[in-house]
Amino acid sequence: MRLLRGARRVLLENWTGTSTVPSRGLYPHQWSWDSAFIAIGLRHLSVRRAQRELETLLSAQWGDGRIPHIVFNPAVPLDAYFPSPDFWRSSSAGAAAGAPTAVESSGIVQPPVHALACRLVHLADPRASARRGFLDRLYPRLAAWHRYLAECRDLGGHGLVSVVHPWEPGMDNSPCWDAPLARVEPAPPGTFRRADLDHGAAADRPTDLDYGRYVRLAADYRDRGYHDDGPPPAFAVEDPGVNALLIASEHALADIAAAVGADPAPHLARARRLTAALVERLWDPAAGLFLCRDLRAGHMGGGALIPERSAAGLLPLIVPGLPDEIAAALIRTASGDHFGLGTSVRLVPSYDLLGAAFDASRYWRGPAWFNVNWLVERGLRLHGAVDRADALRSAALDTAVSSGFAEYVDPYTGEARGTRDFAWTAALALDLLVTSGGAGTELVTAEREMAAEPE
């Protein structure tokens, strides 16, 4: 089968021996939520490699519990990616926050998909997982990660996690960030060099102005020792996608806790509190989806909702226990005019099709991404919209192959955008194929071939 062979090839070629790079050129290090999604697909080819993927990432965890969004490979030249290790200076600037000294990383975070990924990897071969003590070793690290988010990132004081940089929610240059970023003075153009433009078309990437603001925010966070207390940061946003993924991962962590003999009750209790806060703070009935909240806007201290419609607002579909009426509204919104799923487009776009800032080519300002669609497919299925989930799964599988496992695609045409042979596209397409029962005996052959490859 073409998809299975192609996915296996991408995951094999992007494997470094300890983890998987998202792509060999554009993203030559290990990324946090990429590795979680990659492990979910990789478990179908090699449970051992999927475990190692997550173990490698979590070995770079900071003492305060955070999992950095990039773990740098020291063998990669500094000029291959920016911001590079000498910009973040994690081992020195992050020393007070417990940054490890043996590895360099960034100081910001990405969405907490990790407990969900660990649980799925465990379930792929529970006996082998138990023999290796996989969950026993990772549970304390995952619990510390969730504790960091709950205790250090509730910047609004209402129970939700806040992000302090547009790179943290993963949807780097979403139009949702335009208004919060407008308050940020960009770093001067001559003070940094964008390595991303060596590998991607400028029309597909964030603008220089946006990049200058990203650099400013990252440098300011670094210069205050990556501390989350003190004066409020210039960028502070409650994002529905980040919080939905934390809720789903709290449920997964409760299952992991039970498996290792710990008490699952605290995780379930936190999931309930987060769900209530998510609905209270970010649900907009008029829009029919969840919106981001800018904590630096408004006049009453609670921030203000950002009116832009992003695919992040659909991701709470993955939340178990989401009120039925809200889940139904989200499903209507996904297939309505603003996202067009199953009508004007086959894959969920990253941003409102009718939005003034919509761009079918530019990064998170409109193109469809495979991780978003994997999450929406899972959410549709969770809330009973099985036919819609089946159609989305079929579209994702078709598009993954036809696009050459692209980083993202034009939501209308499916045309490849960004880099090709993108690891999470291959991994998540593989997961959708296997869980649909479409892999058959070819999967067994691919597993054996992967097992025979050197680590």
DSSP helix fraction: 40-55%
Q: Beta-strand level of the residues, as a percent range?
A: under 5%
For the secondary structure, the number of strands is 11
Number of helices: 17
What separation lies between the terminal Cα atoms?
A: 25 Å
The coarse silhouette is: globular
Rg over alpha carbons: 20 Å
Main sheet overview: 4 strands, antiparallel
Oligomeric state, counting identical vs distinct chains: single chain
The strand line-up of the biggest sheet is 3-4-7-8
Mean residue pLDDT: 94
User: H/E series, N to C?
Assistant: HEHHEHHHHHEHHEHHEEEEHEHHEEHH
Low-confidence stretches: none
Structural class: mainly alpha
Task: Kindly describe this structure.
Helix 1 (2-13) runs antiparallel to helix 16 (423-435) and helix 6 (114-124) runs antiparallel to helix 8. The chain is mostly helical and 455 residues long. The strands form four sheets. Strands 3-4-7-8 form a four-stranded antiparallel beta sheet. It is built from 17 helices and eleven strands. The protein has helices at residues 2-13, 32-42, 47-58, 85-88, 90-93, 114-124, 126-132, 134-152, 178-181, 208-223, 240-259, 265-282, 324-335, 370-382, 386-402, 423-435, 441-452, and strands spanning 30-31, 70-71, 162-163, 237-238, 283-284, 289-290, 293-294, 304-305, 368-369, 408-409, 416-417. The protein is globular and about 55 Å long. Helix content is 45%, strand content 5%. The mean pLDDT is 94.
